[in-house]
């Protein structure tokens, strides 16, 4: 496999101790020889998920900071989100949030597989002919 697009659901799984996924494990393994590509909004989403986990007492604040430090050292390459039109079209066509549509638009634009734990996003990717990391 080559480089792939990764969404926040997978990235967060890498640091949340109470979450496990074979898809996330596979994507993390791929980082040994490949880059994960993501829209630059991924860091905002990851920070938000980790802080929500903190507020719900799933993790302590030290793990938020440690988790982000760990993630920043991985081969995650961020890029500005693609143009508005593809994102809005995909969001409308598949009933996705603009956030999720930005990952799908990037995967389509770059012709890369997508790593996601989001069922709705995975289904939309399938309808768009985007392969999934599995």
Overview of this protein structure:
There is one protein chain. By secondary structure, the protein is of the alpha/beta class. The chain has one domain (4-125): 5'-nuclease (Rossmann fold), CATH 3.40.50.1010. The protein has helices spanning 8-13, 22-30, 42-55, 61-72, 84-94, 98-110, 119-127; strands at 4-6, 36-39, 76-79, 114-115. It has a four-stranded parallel beta sheet with strand order 3-2-1-4.
Relative strand content: 5-15%
Biggest sheet record: 4 strands, parallel
List the helices and strands in order.
Answer: EHHEHHEHHEH
Mean of residue pLDDT?
Answer: 96
CATH structural fold name: Rossmann fold
- The stretches of 5 or more residues where confidence is low (pLDDT under 50) are none
Overall shape: globular
Counted beta strands: 4
- Give the full name of the CATH homologous superfamily: 5'-nuclease
Counted up, domains total 1
Radius of gyration: 14 Å
Give the end-to-end Cα distance, rounded to a whole number of Å. Answer: 11 Å
Residues in helices, as a percent range: 55-70%
Structural class: alpha/beta
Major beta sheet, strand line-up:
3-2-1-4
CATH class: Alpha Beta
Total of helices? 7
